[in-house]
Write a structure and sequence with these properties.
It contains 4 helices and 39 strands. The chain has 507 residues and is mainly β.
Length: 507
């Protein structure tokens, strides 16, 4: 477990329009308890001037066990973003009280992370998702290996000081969990009743998107040395369709050490593709969306195959870092062992083809560490997407984007009939000769959660039109929206073609 912590969560917990940051941390061994402040999870409030303040203890979100990842979403539709924290043998749901503090409501909510028999699981990542479009956020949890302190199988040498952790193949897989939001602050675990019988894996990164154009959210899980999972949403039921869709294995038919995962439209055809990171020698995977729920391995044609051969990747994201309208790929890099420190990587997207531009990202960017989680937000609200990265036995890295200024738009959507976080809403942005499609989806990379705001790079265009497809089915049109502003958009009562319930915040 020492190799795995590092999930990060972007959360505007004080509702001031400036992204704050939550970071998970491990615990003492073998007790799996946070024995002191050095093990606390940390909540950093954005001071709006390039600095942050640690408010963990006042907020009461220090955690209690060996935590790995986090998910952010407004599960009770009160307009405040809440925290779900996952880890080894115990998960936590923190409800945002709106006064700078949180309350642990795990037990009353029923989301502690046990399986149907009450057995404690090892959770790596989670994602908020309104899978049934009832306006309440449900919760998906990605679980890893069946493990307990002191009962490891013996691998390595005969002597104790020469033993090592075994390959994941030596451990039993664990079930994925799906919690249905009952709308009263409680949840019901519904994996089996929704059709996901015995859905086992060694789940790591989770990504969510309406990948088949059905208007319903599906789920991709990157598995560690096991076939990847793709959960198709059929409305009343769910089904696992990874093999049929072409994403269970890579183009060679092999399993890899899947770590991070992200959905995003790489080639500009309006359909969400999938990227997945792996360890050195395995290469990363890019699955191109060919429509109707089918994918094709395009790792070679996008150049990621060759670019990633010597890299171990964990957290990742598809983000427009230079505001040219194309999603670039950022990867948090580092090996498993303490001697495998690596610098992060940036792959610039040029109309569907990637180029490694890491060497030009600045002299500080070459720092090599055991990087793990990565989350994305415009922390200084200047219209350029920034990145925060965690590392084992090292500090956080906050990478402020200093790329040349181009035009942009950012928007925070607020659901009324849809879930308040607007997770699952699709936004179509038309500017000049380009049409871009993004969704409100913040589960990203490895065990992390990015900003809920939607970002579009507009390059040289000074305005754009927006078409918003809310999860409720309502469609909203906004014409001639001026570039370089933050929009607050509220879901209308019915399909609308004007600017009602839209406000701009010029920071």
């Amino acid at each position: 477990m020492e190799t795995l912590p590092g999930g990060l969560g972007v959360i505007d917990f004080d509702h001031d329009g400036w992204p704050d940051l939550y970071c998970v941390n491990g615990a003492a061994l073998p007790s799996l308890k946070k024995a002191g402040p050095s093990f606390f999870n940390r909540l950093y409030r954005n001071n709006r001037n390039g600095t942050f303040t640690d408010v963990t203890e006042r907020a009461e979100v220090k955690g209690r066990g060996y935590e790995i990842g986090t998910a952010v979403g407004d599960y009770n539709n009160d307009g405040l973003e809440d925290l779900y924290v996952v880890g080894l043998h115990g998960n936590i749901l923190y409800r945002n009280n709106g006064d700078g503090t949180f309350t642990d409501v795990t037990q009353t909510a029923g989301v502690g992370g046990e399986d149907a028999k009450g057995r404690k699981l090892w959770s790596i990542a989670a994602a908020w998702i309104d899978y049934d479009n009832d306006g309440n956020l449900d919760l998906f949890v990605s679980n890893y290996c069946d493990w307990e302190p002191g009962i490891d199988p013996v691998c390595g040498g005969i002597l104790k000081d020469s033993r090592t952790y075994c390959h994941p193949d030596k451990y039993r897989s664990e079930p994925m969990l799906l919690y249905h939001n009952n709308g009263d602050g409680s949840f019901t675990e519904v994996s089996r009743s929704m059709g996901l019988v015995d859905l086992l894996g060694k789940g790591m990164g989770v990504a969510v998107a309406d990948y088949d154009g059905s208007g319903r959210q599906g789920i991709f899980v990157a598995n560690d040395n096991a076939r990847n999972l793709l959960i198709r949403n059929l409305g009343g039921k769910l089904e696992e369709a990874g093999i049929e869709a072409g994403v269970a294995y890579n183009g060679d038919g092999r399993e890899i050490s899947g770590m991070g995962a992200a959905f995003g439209d790489i080639d500009g055809d309006g359909k969400p593709d999938i990227v997945m990171t792996g360890l050195r020698g395995e290469t990363f995977e890019v699955f191109g969306n060919r429509g109707h729920g089918n994918f094709e391995d395009i790792s070679a044609s996008t150049r990621i195959l060759a670019l990633s051969a010597r890299v171990s990747g964990w957290g990742c994201g598809l983000v427009d870092l230079d505001n040219d309208g194309w999603l670039d790929m950022f990867v948090a890099c580092g090996g498993l062992d303490t001697d495998e420190l690596q610098p992060n990587r940036i792959f610039h997207n040029q109309q569907g083809l990637f180029t490694d531009v890491s060497s030009g990202a600045g002299p500080d960017f070459a720092v090599a560490r055991l990087h793990r989680g990565a989350a994305f937000a415009d922390f200084d609200n200047d219209g350029r997407m920034d990145v925060v990265v965690s590392s084992l036995n090292g500090p956080l890295e906050l990478w402020m984007n200093r790329s040349p200024q181009r035009h942009w738009l950012q928007m925070k959507l607020s659901g009324k009939q849809s879930n308040r976080s607007a997770l699952g809403a699709k936004v179509i942005c038309r500017n000049g000769s380009r049409t871009q499609v993004r969704s409100v989806a913040n589960s990203v990379g490895y065990a992390s959660s990015s900003d809920l705001r939607v970002h579009f790079g507009l390059d040289r265009d000074r305005s754009a039109s927006l078409e918003i497809h809310w999860p409720s089915g309502i469609v909203q049109h906004l014409q001639d929206v001026r570039a370089d502003q933050h929009l607050q958009i509220i879901e209308p009562a019915q399909s609308a073609a004007d600017g009602r319930d839209v406000s701009a915040d010029h920071r």
